[in-house]
Amino acid sequence: MRLDIISIFPEYFAPLDVSLIGKARERGTLDVRVHQLRDWAHDVHKTVDDTPYGGGPGMVMKPEVWGEAIDTVVGDGSPRMIVPTPSGRPFTQELAQELADEPWLLFACGRYEGIDSRVMDEYATRLRVDEVSIGDYVLAGGEVAVLVMVEAIGRLLPGVLGNAQSAVDDSFAPGSMQNLVEGPVYTKPPVWRGHEVPPVLLSGHHGNVARWRRDQAIRRTVRNRPELARELDPGTLDKHDRKL
Ligand SMILES: CN1CCC[C@H](Cn2ccc3ccc(-c4n[nH]c(N)c4C#N)cc32)C1
C-alpha cells in the first residue's frame, strides 16, 4: 500500500518511522510519502491560507496551493483521497478495514478553519473522496487524525501484526467479539501488591478462559458503552448478563 500525506507540518509524521508502521515501511509493506504543502506556495512567504469569504474567525486554506500539490502527487493515478474533518463520516474499525484494502491512499491534512471546499469538489470529479472524522471533539488540524487512521489501517495489513497480535480478535472486528470492547488483561506475577490474577486465567482450560474473557468484555461494554450493548444480539446478553 502507498500512503501519501500532504501537510504544512510534515514533522508530525515522524512517529510513522517507528514501531509497527516503521517496520512495515522497512519491509516494503507500506510506502509512506509525506509532502510539505508549502512547496506548492510560490510567494515569498509560502502563503497557504487567506481570510474566509462571508467573514468569520480564522483563516481558510487556499484552493490553488492544494490543487497544485494534489495534481503533482496524484499525477494520472487514482488514489482514494481522505480528508480529516470534524464534520466527516465517523472513522470506524469497519472503515479502517475498507481502507486497508485500498492500494493507494492520499491524506489531505487541513489546518486553520479547514481547506476551501472547492478542493474536495474538484477532486471528487475524478477520485473517491471521503471526509472522515476520528471523533466528536475538535482538533487544531488533520495531522493527529491521520496518525490515528494510519495506525488503525496499517495494523490490518498482512504481516504487520505478528501472529501473537492478530487483529482477528480485535474488539470491533467481525467475529465473536465484534462490537464488544476489550476485556481486562493480565501478566506475571500471579499476585501483585495483594491483587490476584483471576484464577480461570491460570487454569489452562481454554474453553473456560474464552467464556470468561467474553463475559468480561460484555460486562465492560454494558458498563462503558451502553449504546454498543443495545446493538448486541439478544442472545449475547443472556438473562445473567442483563442483570449486569
Ligand atoms: C474551530 N475550527 C472548526 C473546524 C476545524 C478547525 C481545525 N481543523 C482544521 C483542519 C482539521 C481537520 C480535522 C479536524 C478534526 N477535529 N476533530 C476531529 N475529529 C477532526 C478530524 N478528523 C480539525 C481540523 C477548527
What is the radius of gyration computed over CA atoms, rounded to a whole number of angstroms? 22 Å
Separation, N- and C-terminal Cα atoms: 43 Å
How many beta-strand runs? 9
The helix fraction, in percent, is 25-40%
Mean pLDDT: 93
Which kinds of small molecule does this entry bind, naming each only once?
the ligand CN1CCC[C@H](Cn2ccc3ccc(-c4n[nH]c(N)c4C#N)cc32)C1
Q: Shape from CA axes?
A: elongated
Protein architecture, described:
- The protein is of the alpha/beta class and 244 residues long.
- It is built from eight helices and nine strands.
- Helix 3 packs across helix 5 (143-154).
- The longest helix has 19 residues, at 206-224.
- The model has no long low-confidence stretch (mean pLDDT 93).
- Residues 84-86, 110-111, 113-114, 133-135, 137-142, 145 line the site of the ligand CN1CCC[C@H](Cn2ccc3ccc(-c4n[nH]c(N)c4C#N)cc32)C1.
What layout of secondary structure does this protein have?
Elements: E1 2-7, H1 19-27, E2 31-36, E3 49-50, E4 60-61, H2 63-74, E5 80-90, H3 93-100, E6 104-108, H4 117-123, E7 129-133, H5 143-154, E8 191-192, E9 195-196, H6 206-224, H7 226-229, H8 239-242
Parallel strand pairs: 1-2, 1-6, 5-6, 5-7
Antiparallel strand pairs: 3-4, 8-9
Helix pairs in contact: 3-5
Short description:
This protein has 244 residues and is α/β, with parallel strands linked by helices. The protein is built from eight helices and nine strands. The model has no long low-confidence stretch (mean pLDDT 93).
Keywords:
244 residues; alpha/beta; two-stranded antiparallel sheet; 31% helix; binds the ligand CN1CCC[C@H](Cn2ccc3ccc(-c4n[nH]c(N)c4C#N)cc32)C1
